[in-house]
Structures are given as C-alpha cells and as structure tokens.
Amino acid sequence: MPLLQILDLHAEVSGKPILKGVNLSIEAGEIHAIMGPNGSGKSTLSAILMGHPNYKVTSGDILWENQSILTISTTERAKLGMFLSFQYPTALPGVTIGSFLKTILKAHRGNEIPIKEFKKELKDAMTSLTIPDSILSRYVNDGFSGGEKKRAEILQMSLLKPKLAILDETDSGLDIDALRIVSEGIVKTHSKDRSILLITHYQRMLNYVTPDFVHIFADGRILETGNKELALKLEEKGYDWILGKAIEL
C-alpha cells in the first residue's frame, strides 16, 4: 500500500485553476524529486498536501495510507506523519529555538517529554547534523542566514521523524557550502521508513540527494517521470523543452 497517493488532483486559488490533474504515488522510503519552472504549481502542490486553507481542491483526492485526508486539518496531517519545510521559513522573534523545538515535539506526540529524554534526542540530532549548541538560545530564524534557516528546518524534521517530508525548494538561497551541508542533513534523516518529496528548480541538489524518481512538473501537472538522468536531461535542454510538451497536451 502506498504511503501517499495523489489521484487526478485539481485545485484553484481565488477561482484560478492551479493544479490540473496531478497523479503521484509514493511508497515508504522513496525519494521523489519534482522539478519545474516558476509558476508551474509545485509550491501550490506542497501547500495543498498540508491542507493550506487558501487553496481549494475542486476534484480528485489525496490518500494517506489508503484513507482520504482532504477533510482533515493541517495539524491532523502533521500528526499522521507529514512535514513541510518552507521555501521562506518565518522568523519568530522572542521564541528561542530550544523552546520552539520542545513545544512542537510535545504537540506532535501529544504528551509532555521528560527533560532528560528531550535533551538527549536534541543532542543526538544536533551532533548528527553538525549544528552548534549556540543555536538553541537564538530566536527562531531571526537574523539567520539562508543556510541557518534551512538547517534549523532539517533539525525539526530530524526530531519529528515524519513518514513523509515535503521539502519545498530547500536549496533556494543557499551557497555551495550551505547546499552541501543541508543536503547531507537530509540524507542523514532519510530511512527505509521515511519518504521525501523534494521540490526544486535545479538539478544541483540531486548531486547530493539521489532520488528514486524525478518528475517534471509544468502547467499544473506532471508531464514526465524518470530517474536522475531525466534531471540531467532537463539541465541540458532547459524548461522550454518540457513546456513544449505541455502545449502539445
């Protein structure tokens, strides 16, 4: 049974159609990369998967372990095991990273976590991701560099241990070194029980995170699916090649 199934999904925002028949199936442990140009609907797809209220599903379905999740809230989807890493993480001045992580972990698990247990889990995750202890006293994303914001999100993912991590353009705004560090963090948190849906413009992140499947997304739907070689082909030919196919359809 697939972990996630997207079935002929159509959606709109403010009456404007964005998704125009998306079909996708993700098994446990798989890494899927979605690539496409600006405005193609990639980020809309990630928002709809997490239940963003500004987007309206007009037809189709989203199944989580064979059960429709269209009517459940974002919080309930997160508790099922879905996680979304934002392209532009929000700053929370006045809220320290340490306090924030403890709060979200309690909310996710539904009970208070003993301090000793929390500290050990946090220390193990930070050591694995080579994140310094000094980050814990800083306010969430306040004054963070692009790389620090993305590493903080991967730290959240490492603690929450989601069944499916949706990473929306995690490579956006990262320099070469930050891209490598963040990508290595993603690989470390992946396992046979945890799937990843990686949304990106560029092939460069796939040099570090090797996908099982690459999907080319344009005009609100998936136009072609392949392996990493498809991403290299796209890098060589550009998006005009695939946009031509969208026009033909």
Give an account of the 3D structure.
- By secondary structure, this protein is α/β, with parallel strands linked by helices.
- The chain has helices spanning 42-49, 74-80, 97-109, 115-128, 146-160, 176-189, 228-237, 239-248; strands at residues 4-13, 16-26, 31-35, 56-64, 67-68, 82-85, 92-96, 139-140, 164-168, 195-200, 213-218, 221-226.
- The strands form 3 sheets. Strands 6-9-10-3-11-12 form a 6-stranded mixed β-sheet, sandwiched between helices.
Layout of helices and strands, plus pairs?
Elements: E1 4-13, E2 16-26, E3 31-35, H1 42-49, E4 56-64, E5 67-68, H2 74-80, E6 82-85, E7 92-96, H3 97-109, H4 115-128, E8 139-140, H5 146-160, E9 164-168, H6 176-189, E10 195-200, E11 213-218, E12 221-226, H7 228-237, H8 239-248
Parallel strand pairs: 3-10, 3-11, 6-9, 9-10
Antiparallel strand pairs: 1-2, 1-4, 4-5, 7-8, 11-12
